[in-house]
Amino acid sequence: MSSTDQSFSLAIIGSGIGGLALAIGLLKQNVRCTVYEAAPVFDAVGAGIGLGPNSLKAMALMDEEFAKMYDDIKVGNTAPERYNEQIEILGAEEGFRHGGSVRHPDFTRSSAHRRALLEVMKSLIPEGTVKFNKRVVSLVQKDSKVSIEFTDGEKVIFDAVIGCDGIKGMTRREVLESRYPEEVPAKYCNEYVYRGITTMENAKAIIGTYAEDARWFMMPNKGWAMYPISGGKEVNIVVFVNDDKPWVGEQAARPVEKEEMLRELEGFDKRLIGLLEYVKPMRWPLFHHPDTPTYVKERICLLGDVAHASSPNQAAGAGQGLEDALVLSRVLGLVKNASELDAAFEVYDLIRRPRAQKVVQESKDVGDIYFLTHPDFGTDLEKITEDANRRLPLIWWYDLEADVKIAEEEFRKKVARLPTVGKGSAEKTSKKKTSIFHPMEG
Ligand SMILES: Cc1cc2nc3c(=O)[nH]c(=O)nc-3n(C[C@H](O)[C@H](O)[C@H](O)COP(=O)(O)OP(=O)(O)OC[C@H]3O[C@@H](n4cnc5c(N)ncnc54)[C@H](O)[C@@H]3O)c2cc1C
Fold it and tell me: Could you identify the atom of ligand 1 that is nearest to the CA of residue 50?
């Protein structure tokens, strides 16, 4: 399809990794879209992001250039013998008890600074595609159209909306509230993290060469993950704490006294304690969406964290958003008129939901294992390493090309069953070109 022939309009809500990836994928399929972002500019929360082979594959299948540009910003481990290692598992107590190596001969460790990834994604999207300062406050579906209202009072109408508005996104409520109200709010994972970032030089001064490669230091109910970012010039630190209490109040980061953080993290090797100088005394609660019974309601569908936010224990959340974007952009690339959008969303839900929800569930299990509290693993670091070496390849070498193929075939079958356009179909394609969006009277 040439984008000038496009007879349907698409809005994406949210310009995080999920929303931007979808926009990139759609552009490659010659499908135009408008992205609405609440923030005044592109922004990235947090520092590092690790992406596995499935994420890189999804990027390449959407747009070769995307994968190539990521290649230029990604950072691996420093020691050549650790290039194929995702993490080294060690005990976090004094002396760093030996654990094991989570690795695969076909795997190459890669992570990036979130800002660098955002820059890459931004550069692949034509200026003007993303409208900033546009916080969506309401969505109304009527006659196979979606009316979007923003905080500034503007209203626009689209044929379909893809919610990429993150874990607390309002599109989740629109899709689930009437049928599955209990699944609207994100659920607490019973863990929170402290985050920090420092220069490689600072980190090495305290912990030596341990700073140069990705490592996860474990002890009961606590964990410490660190890995190089920014071309190896900086180190990203995430400290995990198991929390047996509910998270009360807002689902947002909460400052604590530095002394409280230090007390809480007692028991770590003194080198890790030393690195706490670079960790903010701010608790980030981890929430997830373990059950999402559908990603679609009529002409609104969910993509990325708003659909399947995951605890970060397998570093796989954003990768699932990239996979979503691949499958959805490919089926939307086959849509010829608005009446086929429903089929595209149904197929997307069919293909993507089982895979993404499985990753959410497993990431939570892995959290329990890495906190050394899982009854099957206890504090046996070798057994934990073995389990990770069995589990992670199932995420990394998932057959995305097969998913795309099945999605395209299913879409074609569904469309073949639709009444012929122009002969009694629910929607008729107008000869007049539809504008990409239709601002309504205030
Ligand atoms: C500590 C931690 C570490 C992680 N590490 C990894 C990792 O190593 N690898 C990995 O793959 N994943 C990781 N993840 C997960 C990853 O960060 C997320 O899966 C990913 O960033 C989600 O992207 P998204 O685009 O779906 O949502 P978001 O990044 O949340 O983007 C949503 C966007 O929507 C906008 N928005 C929200 N509401 C509205 C509205 N009403 N109107 C308009 N715009 C709106 C927001 O401003 C935002 O820009 C980690 C997560 C955490 C918490």
Answer: 8
